[in-house]
Amino acid sequence: MEPTIYSRFKELVNSDPDHPAVIDERSCVTYAGLDRMVDTLISRFPSFIPARVGIVMDHSVEMIASILAVIKSGAAFVAVEPDFPPGRTVNFLVECGIDFVITQEAYANRLYDFKQLIIGKEINIDPALHPLPDRSHPDRTAYIMYTSSATGYPIGVSVGNRQVLGFAEAFKRTFNVSGDDVMLQYSACVMNIFVEEVFGTLLNGAILAVPSSPTRNDVDALLKFIDEWYVSIISGFPFLFMELDKVESLPQTVRLLISSGDALHAASIEHLLEQVPVYNTYGPAEGTVGVTSYCCNEGYYLPDGNFPIGKPVSAATDILILDDDLQPVSDGKEGEICLVGEGLAEGYIGDHRNDQQPFVFTDDGRRVFRTGDIGCKLEDGNYSYLRRKDSEVNILGKKVVTGEVERAMRTSDEVEDCVVVHYVDEQGAAYLVAYVVPATRSFRLSWVKNKMAQYLPAYMIPEFFVLLKKLPVNEAGQVNHQALPVVLKDGQTQHHTAV
């Protein structure tokens, strides 16, 4: 029978049951122990055979066990960070049609609309419980991850068991992952890298090390955690590596850094390149995590200072550079980065799935995902990422579509019109500036930001707000971005507001 995520995990349980699987700041659980936790959780599910299950939990051993339990039950998990705005969390879970949500007591009140399974600080294993049947299937959805879309509406990407297994195998081959490795679980569960951290580890017999939220947000504490738990692989966004580049030296156990989620600038990792191999990778949620990789230590950077994204890591997903008519462009010419192959996600779910047109078919019948990224194929066969076609930008490693920010801003009675633009600071990091035409003379920015916070996480709220009597427009009646006053940032200042 074709394997699934859980059956692959079970193979590792049977082959090395006492090998550590997940470590957090309170406990360590083996592969066999994690498997018993999975069965215990399933036995407590409020729905007998669920289809979709929400997970709103602090990152921990219990959270990872909950994810595997949902997958073993044959359902798909929909993970949302606890600190997301309640309205945004509820919208995601309602749109997905979840059967229930796994959460903790601290977050139960904000999820009162849903049937709940509340997890305590520990999952007490029932020694009399017999192993429960594995209801997972290769063709079933493993998870739904929300991402930004060109329309400005968040869209749920549905990814199957088969695609995750293919990714995990390619990840092992590319980075030589073994049972001796300890992977840091740093990323938010709504991000693509989270899937890489969890399944790139637990489907390859390695150990997942999960720091608490306070530790993740403090570089010194994070480095101490990495050192104490012998972390060997760190996968993260470029902004994390920019911070690590500033420290005197990495803990000696670290053997590999994997950057993803945004362009990697050479100047931001100069010190790191002297210490360990650093890989630049590329892959949207629709491509099931990682599609390409490039070893920066042995390579070069491009005229814009960024490293290439490399070559495909698996035969399951290939790259095409196409024009607007889906015709191939010559090597070295700019075009849209398109993905093709069995590694592509199943598709979209939710109210706005029909608004999306990125999955198309070529003349020869191949299913293609149009990423919306502009790039080119280089002379040596590597690929480069150049820019986005639309208004999407990465803020602190998280995808943001400025249209969604504008829509949230317009829900306030204080705003007559607005436009949101992103700029890049001296360190190569993007930041948002909102240009606002106030609806009243007594404009109150605090009211606008409070209204936005009901729908958007903090990283999506612009750092700067500029008041204008009217937005400049061109002859076509569209906002003239070139006529907007530029707000500069030196790369050191954080979270400032200008009115």
Question: What tags apply to this protein structure?
Answer:
5-stranded antiparallel sheet, single chain, 23% helix, 499 residues, 26 strands, 5-stranded mixed sheet, GMP Synthetase, Chain A, domain 3, alpha/beta
Structure description:
The protein folds into two domains: 5-377, ANL, N-terminal domain (Rossmann fold), CATH 3.40.50; 392-483, GMP Synthetase, Chain A, domain 3, CATH 3.30.300. Strand 3, helix 3 and strand 4 (76-79) form a beta-alpha-beta unit. The protein has 499 residues and is α/β, with parallel strands linked by helices. Residues 493-499 have low confidence and may be disordered. Strands 11-12-13-14-15 form a five-stranded mixed beta sheet, sandwiched between helices. The chain has twelve helices and 26 strands. Helix 5 (161-175) crosses helix 6. It has helices at residues 5-15, 31-43, 61-72, 86-96, 161-175, 192-202, 213-216, 219-228, 238-244, 270-273, 402-409, 445-453, and strands spanning 20-24, 28-30, 52-56, 76-79, 100-103, 116-118, 141-147, 155-160, 182-184, 207-210, 233-236, 256-259, 278-282, 292-295, 311-312, 318-322, 335-340, 347-349, 359-361, 367-377, 383-388, 392-395, 398-401, 415-424, 430-438, 464-467. The longest helix has 15 residues, at 161-175.
The CATH homologous superfamily of the largest domain corresponds to ANL, N-terminal domain
CATH architectural designation of the largest domain: 3-Layer(aba) Sandwich
Distance between the termini: 62 Å
Overall geometry comes to globular
Mean pLDDT: 90
Q: Please compute the radius of gyration using only Cα atoms.
A: 23 Å
Work out the helicity level: 10-25%
Biggest β-sheet description: 5 strands, mixed
Relative strand content: 25-35%
Strand order of the largest sheet: 11-12-13-14-15
What's the total helix number? 12
**What's the number of domains?**
2
